[in-house]
Amino acid sequence: MRQAEVLIEVPFHDVDVMKVAWHGHYVKYFEIARCALLDSIDYNYPQMEASGFAWPVIDLRVRYAQPLHFQQKIRVIAKLTEWENRLKIDYLIEDAQTRQRLTKGYTVQVAVDMQNSEMLFVSPEILFKKLGLEP
């Protein structure tokens, strides 16, 4: 499986008065890891647009196990688990030092032809090429 990981220190502007990260910021951390994963296959959002496809997120799940705190160093791992008909990326947020699981989740994206705004039911050939696979 293709995967990427990023290290993030939870910034002050992401936390509340209790120094706990607001739940919506976890999705931002997923996005940072997702972009690192897509960069690793040279098919991040600029390359997607250049290939004629948009890839909107159509499903998102977050399972919060432990809170994230101000200045906590976290590791966010993004793993590509499906690509034939959609992009499904699984995420794991863990403490960078202890490796304790803090949060997990996934996103699902589908290809949309930008010329006619039609959703594809099979991922376009360009994705398979970027992954080094045959469609």
What's this entry about, in short?
With 135 residues, this protein is α+β, with helices and mostly antiparallel strands. The chain is 21% helix and 36% strand.
Gross morphology is elongated
- Percentage of residues in strands: 35-45%
Structural class: alpha+beta
Strand order of the largest sheet: 1-4-5-6-3
Mean residue pLDDT? 96
Number of strands: 8
**N-to-C span:** 16 Å
Radius of gyration: 16 Å
Q: Give helix % range.
A: 10-25%
Largest sheet: 5 strands, antiparallel
User: Helix tally?
Assistant: 3
Spell out the helices and strands N to C. EHHEEEEEEEH
Key features?
alpha+beta; 3-stranded antiparallel sheet; about 140 residues; 8 strands; 5-stranded antiparallel sheet; 3 helices
Describe what you observe in this structure.
It is built from three helices and eight strands. It has 135 residues and is α+β, with helices and mostly antiparallel strands. The two termini are 16 Å apart. 21% of the residues are buried. It has a five-stranded antiparallel β-sheet, with helices on one face. The protein has a three-stranded antiparallel β-sheet with strand order 2-7-8.
SSE topology sketch:
Blueprint lengths: L2 E7 L15 H16 L4 H6 L2 E2 L2 E8 L8 E10 L4 E9 L5 E9 L2 E2 L4 E2 L5 H6 L5
Antiparallel strand pairs: 1-4, 2-7, 3-6, 4-5, 5-6, 7-8
